[in-house]
């Protein structure tokens, strides 16, 4: 079906599929419980999952690009991810 040469791409896509599955399960849990209190609780859990997946997928991508990017560009990418996480946290 998909002819992927790089196994790191499979890892990145797998993590995103797992993240999407967690999002769908969370939406179903919100509907199942049917109260705003439980929905907010489930949503709080999702706020932890998103940044973790972002960091893991970015790390896998940077590992794959380590031999192709110079050090300065890699530091810039890591700073960008850190700024995203800081912005979401504030």
UniProtKB/TrEMBL annotation:
* Top-level taxon: Bacteria
Q: What is this protein called?
A: YqhV family protein
**Keywords of this entry:** Membrane, Transmembrane, Transmembrane helix
The answer, when asked if Transmembrane is one of the entry's keywords, is: yes
- Membrane-spanning segments: 12-33, 45-65, 71-88
């Amino acid at each position: 079906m998909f002819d992927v040469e790089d196994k790191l791409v499979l890892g990145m896509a797998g993590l995103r599929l797992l993240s999407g599955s967690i999002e769908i399960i969370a939406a179903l849990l919100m509907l199942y419980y049917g109260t705003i209190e439980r929905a907010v609780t489930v949503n709080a859990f999702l706020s932890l999952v998103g940044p973790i997946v972002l960091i893991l997928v970015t790390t896998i991508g940077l590992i794959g690009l380590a031999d192709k990017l110079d050090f300065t560009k890699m530091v810039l990418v890591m700073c960008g991810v850190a700024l995203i996480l800081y912005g979401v946290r504030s």
